[in-house]
Amino acid sequence: MNTKGRSLELFFVNGKPDQMLTAEVFGWTGHVLMFPRTQLVEAFQRKETKFTGIYLLIGENEQGPLAYVGEAEDVGSRIKNHDVNKDWWTSVVLITSAANNLNKAHVKYLESRMVEIAKSVGRMDLENGNTPSRPSLSESVTASMEVFLEHILLVLPALQIDFLLSNARPTVSSEKMVPDRKVPIFEIIHAKFGIDAKAVLDNGEFVVQKDSIARGKWVGQASITSSYSKLCEQLIRQKILVQEGEARRFTENYAFNSPSAAAAVIQGRSSNGPTNWKVRGSKKTYKEWEIEEMNKLN
User: Fold this and answer.
1) Hey, which of 13, 134, 240, 286 would disulfide with 20, CB 3.0 to 4.6 Å?
2) Quick count: other Cβ atoms within 10 Å of Cβ 62?
3) What integer pLDDT is reported at residue 106 of this predicted model?
4) Do 254 and 248 touch, CB atoms closer than 8 A?
5) Which backbone phi and psi does 117 adopt, to 5 degrees?
């Protein structure tokens, strides 16, 4: 996907951020309508619910968060059917075209690709069974649908729907160049617990490198409710962290949203990441390095 900036327009239909909203990206023909199950009657009065499109059901069951990806030529009718037959979902996302120019083959392709991505990412269980087969599309139409899909993957995380979002990252060079300076490798080493982890900053993300070694179990307090312990369990489910003897190894480069989140997963407990990470080959902490870089801007 093009990495240039994009403009996302959110419209809160009732003026409340936790109720019905629409989302559109400038230059994209797609349209997203999201609403809670409690607003089904209001939603069905909108024209988009009669369009051909993709829909997502979001909720949870006894095992945890759950999602369902579907398609229909009349998405509203399909949602009405799910309202009768599925009890677990609490919110809906409808993805259509503003001009209603998606056809059955288009949405079947998008459904197949989205189920495929969701299962590959592994963030959330899907109620879908097997991945739907892709319809036969021409080369040009397939390319157009992939561009449409890229926009879907851009919009959904902004709506806090991240089960299609992968944090796995390609390998970066050991001293990746950014404008006018080098970004170092950071590391956490703790021989007693077998910890030997490396990370780099890449495009604003703190990326722990493949084959980094983390502590073999979570030892911090409040492990049941800690967001970091939940993140650790998520990475284990996704097989990004795999058990090897008494330690765990990263099978892929993984982008964390902060040095502290990365340090917590690696050390098995809540951690002050900016002071725990050190510039490789020195005693300089991430925090000290960051302050030095900020001072260079003065």
Assistant:
1) 13
2) 6
3) 97
4) no
5) -65, -45
Residue 127 C-beta-side C-alpha neighbours within 13 Å: 20
Per the CB < 8 A criterion, the answer to whether 253 and 169 are in contact is yes
* 195 strand-pairing partners: 190
Can you give the pLDDT at residue 4?
74
Residue with tokens 């099978």: 251
pLDDT at 42: 94
- Host H or E run for residue 275: helix 273-276
Q: Let me know how long the chain is.
A: 298
User: What pLDDT is recorded for position 3?
Assistant: 61
- ∠ CA 291-202-24, nearest 5°, is 110
3 DSSP 8-state letter: -
Mean pLDDT by runs of 10 across the 298 residues of the chain is 77 93 95 96 94 96 89 95 92 95 96 93 86 93 96 93 82 46 85 93 89 92 68 88 94 92 93 92 93 85
- pLDDT the model gives residue 230: 85
Q: From CA 32, how far away is CA 66, in angstroms rounded?
A: 20
Containing 263, the helix (H) or strand (E) segment is helix 259-267
Q: Could you give the CA distance from residue 71 to residue 3 in angstroms, rounded to a whole number?
A: 29
Q: In what order do the strands lie in the sheet with 53-61?
A: 8-12, 21-25, 30-36, 89-97, 53-61, 64-72, 125-126
Distance (Å, whole) CA 171 – CA 152? 25
Give this prediction's pTM: 0.74
Q: What three-state secondary structure class fits 294?
A: helix
- The secondary structure of 113-162, three-state, reads HHHHHHHHHCCCEECCCCCCCCCCCCHHHHHHHHHHHHHHHHHHHHCCCC
Nearest to 65 by CA among 127, 158, 154: 127
pLDDT of residue 225: 52
